[in-house]
Amino acid sequence: MPTRVPQERRRRRPTRSGVLLSEDLIVETALRLIGEHGPEALSVRRLGTAIGCDPSALYRYFHGTDDLVLAIADRIIGDAMAGFAPGDDWVASLREMALRVRAGYLAHPRAAAFASYRVTRRENEIRAVETGIGLLLSAGFAPVDATRLYLTFIDTVLSHAAMDAAFQALPRPQREADHRAWHDVYQGLDPVAYPALTTVRQELHSMGDSSFEEAVDLLLEALAARAPGML
Predict the structure, then answer these.
(1) Residues annotated as DNA-binding region (predicted)?
(2) Are 212 and 201 in contact (CB under 8 A)?
(3) Fold type of domain 85-230
(4) Structure confidence by residue, pLDDT tens digits, 122-181
C-alpha cells in the first residue's frame, strides 16, 4: 500500500485568499475543474490558481495528481453511498447500491471516466466493498463465492455506469445525433440485407436508452438463483 501523506502535513492552512486549505477543498475544486474543463484540467498548477494558493502547498495533502485522482474516485463513492443502510433483502440492497453508483457517476460524468477502474484504498471504497461482500455472505454464499460474485457485480455496475456517464459527458449535439441515428439510419435499412433489424425496427428507438437497470436486474436474478438458500 502506498505511503499516505502524514496527518501533521495535512492540517488546514489558509491560502493567499484567506481560504483554509484542506483535502476536502482540493478535491471539491478538482471536481469542479474537471466538470468545467475535462480531466486535462487536473494539474497542480491549475488547482493552485483556482484555490488561490502556491501549487507546492498541494503536496502537503497529496503526493501528486494520481494520489488526487484516487481521492476524487473515493469522494464520488462516498457521495453516492451517503446515508445508505442495507436492509434485510440482500437483492434489493445490492440493487440500491448499483443505482447509487450510477447516480454518483452521472453527477460527475467527466470525472467518472478515469475514476471507475481505480482502487482508491480509501475509507469510502473500503466501506462499500465491506457492505457488498457482507450482503452476499448474508445470502449464504461461501467466502470465496461471495468475493468473486461481488467482483462480478461491481464490475458490471461500474462499467455500465461509466458508459452512461461518458455518454452524458458528450456535447449535446453528439448525444442528439446518436439518438437520432436509431430513427434516421436504422429505419431505412434494406430488409433483404438486414432482416432481423427490419423485424424489430419499430422497437429500435429503445437502443438509444440506457440498459443499466436491465443489466443489473438480470445479474441480480442470476445471483438470487444461485444463492444457497435457493438450491
Answers:
(1) 43-62
(2) no
(3) Tetracycline Repressor; domain 2 (1.10.357)
(4) 999 999 999 999 999 999 999 999 999 999 999 999 999 999 999 999 999 999 999 999
